[in-house]
Design a protein that fits this description.
InterPro entries: ACAD10-like, HAD-like_sf, PGP-like_dom2. It is a single chain. The chain is mostly helical and 151 residues long. It has a single domain, classed as Putative phosphatase, domain 2 (DNA polymerase, domain 1, Orthogonal Bundle), CATH 1.10.150.240. 52% of the residues lie in helices and 8% in strands. The chain is built from seven helices and three strands; from the N terminus they run E-H-H-H-H-H-H-E-H-E. It has a three-stranded parallel beta sheet with strand order 1-2-3, with helices on one face. Helix 1 packs across helix 5. The protein is elongated, with a radius of gyration of 17 Å.
């Protein structure tokens, strides 16, 4: 049996130019939140965002849970969340960033595939059950057309 080789791409920071941490940092600056506040809440072991990425909850379930986690952490840290801040706004920024797929990376994946290598991308997306879920669905369709496997 012939040996198959594969290349695994990370979505954030490779296939898409931004990382969630960069989006969080920008929002922290815009809303005068302490540096690392949003990333700290999102990256806790069983945070709503982590559970959504594991498929344990949908987007509509994750939004109020993550909002609650942010409010709780703000209280612990003595941070005031601005009145114009919301998890929905954060997710909108993340969704815009994830749509910024690098054409060069898609071309590289196609070249590798044509040379007989299997390609996969680690996407870490949540189940978007919102009415506006067509953006992420379009993205996953785009990735699925270029990579052998989207995880």
């Amino acid at each position: 049996m012939a040996e198959k080789k594969a290349v695994l791409f990370n979505f954030w920071g490779v296939t898409a130019s931004s990382t969630p941490q960069e989006v969080f940092q920008t929002l922290e600056e815009v809303h005068n939140l302490p540096r690392g506040f949003l990333c700290g809440v999102a990256s806790k072991k069983d945070s709503a965002m982590i559970r959504a990425e594991r498929g344990e909850m949908t987007l509509s379930q994750m939004i109020p849970a993550f909002e609650s986690e942010c409010l709780k952490e703000a209280k612990v840290q003595g941070v005031s969340l601005p009145s114009d801040w919301s998890v929905k706004g954060l997710l909108k920024e993340l969704q815009e960033a994830m749509m910024d797929v690098q054409p060069a990376m898609l071309q590289i994946a196609a070249r590798l595939h044509h040379r007989g290598l299997l390609t996969a991308v680690l996407a870490n997306h949540w189940l978007d059950d919102s009415a506006a879920g067509d953006g992420p669905a379009h993205l996953l369709s785009l990735l699925g057309g270029r990579f052998d496997l989207v995880l």
